[in-house]
User: Fold FAD-dependent oxidoreductase from Microbispora maris.
Amino acid sequence: MRAIISGAGIAGLAAALRLAQAGWEILVVERAPERRGGGYGVTFGGIGYDGAERMGILPALKERAFVTRELVYRKPNGERRFAVGGQTIAATMGNRSFNILRGDIESVLYEAARNTTPIRFGTTITAVDQDADAVRVTLSDGAVESADLLIGADGLHSATRALVFGPEENYRLDMGHRVAVYMMKERPAGLPEGTTSSISDNGRTFAMMSVGDGRTAAFFGYRTDQDGTGSALRELQDVYGDMGWLVPQALEGLKHADSVYFDNIAQMVVDRWSRGRVVLLGDAAWCVTLFAGYGSSLAVGGADLLGAALERHGGDVITALAEWEAQVRPEAEKKQKLGRRVKGVYAPRNPVVLELTQLPLRLSSWGPVRRMIERKFQLQG
Assistant:
């Protein structure tokens, strides 16, 4: 059996690894000219943890995990408001989850898959044709490839989805926010190792995260009804120019960043994830968004379960895809609903609403409440 996978991100590489382990021949095509790293820190757990364990990459992922010793909330001028300690953070995460940089998940998957999976960088799919026996794709280099399955794991703006399922606007649900993330060249002196600090004010959030090995991620997220078509630097300077603390340093660092992720936050609400021998995976299929905070876990877990379904049904790809979707869709839709709920309270413009949304966090830093939370999660574990 042969699969072509569009996209060499977390979902695509996880699918490549899992299907190679099942004995499939794999070809991955990736639009970018080379691998990209960085991104923001995520909590990895749930079905992603289970899938990583089954695929044998869990130890390598845990080696890349980082520990947040303190989560500090600040005023716009940088003055400290309150903090949540590392013990409380760890207690709420449980035993089968950990913090890791998105780029490090991708790196671990790449290292595990690279020996069995050819990847054609700088290549896209320009046409798709299929019948009952095979799917054929035309690539941007002129090559035509045939396979038993095409997996569209090419992200929020999936070209595979556009070619087979229809234009993006048919499925896109805009969340009214924009995000920018990049890796800083060095950790600023004002951010202790192992600390994440954030500022929320007037519909804007800024965070700086120490993500292990001396690396630091700068994160900007803010409410907007506009499409991000201009310069990230110019727009972020306009939105965040009056903030203090380390924000000016983060804005200056944008000028020298190796790469910047800058896009509107949106979900993909796709009524069916497969058409014939073409299936969508990861953000191309659902994109739960950072508001739900489960995208990387869902991508790895979804890829693992897809491989398992294909193994169970052998050459019956259509039946396997239907079974897989029935298994994964409830989890993805639950996280999408969570993301839509969180959207309403993320970076509120009203200062009273901001205080109310942060009240539970503020209370968790108070001794008696902190101990109650820790005991609650220990009992659940």
